[in-house]
Hints:
This protein is an alpha+beta fold. It is built from three helices and six strands.
Amino acid sequence: MRTAPTGGNRQDIDIYVATADGVYVYDAKANLLNPVLSEDIRSLSGRQFPPPAVPANLVPPLDEAPVNLIFVWDYSKKSTTSTEEQMLRLAFAHTGSIVQNVYLYCASEGLATVVRLWFDKPAMEKKMKLRPDQYAVLVQSVGYPRQRS
Length: 149
Ligand SMILES: Cc1cc2nc3c(=O)[nH]c(=O)nc-3n(C[C@H](O)[C@H](O)[C@H](O)COP(=O)(O)O)c2cc1C
């Protein structure tokens, strides 16, 4: 069920899904969400960090989004033929491909989405109990479009 390619077929990006019920990790082979944490962490995963330097009314209420996708690079899946710098470029390119597929899906279903660099990465990695060889790259919030008045 993977819809994005990876260099050398590393499959090195895991998708964690934060919802009201907790955090899950997507198992693409089984097309299942496996539970990771039975806690709603969206106030953390949906929060802009550092806080934006613009008035609060201009910041989208991201912690209200039903779903946050957290893209986690598993760099235990390294190869002996790539340098650290090449692995980084691959991981970011892989994440970008997945993000774009989510954008296209959301567009097709009338959902709203935004990908985010600005989240509290150390706090999130700790809360999600990631291993030292896992690295949270980006968060993508998915929700419903605001009603236009
Ligand atoms: C790699 C990347 C990182 C981004 N990081 C943030 C972010 O941390 N916070 C945020 O509010 N928007 C973030 N954005 C969203 C952009 O600001 C947004 O896509 C752009 O302003 C265009 O708006 P639109 O996607 O609604 O058309 C990011 C976009 C990209 C591609």
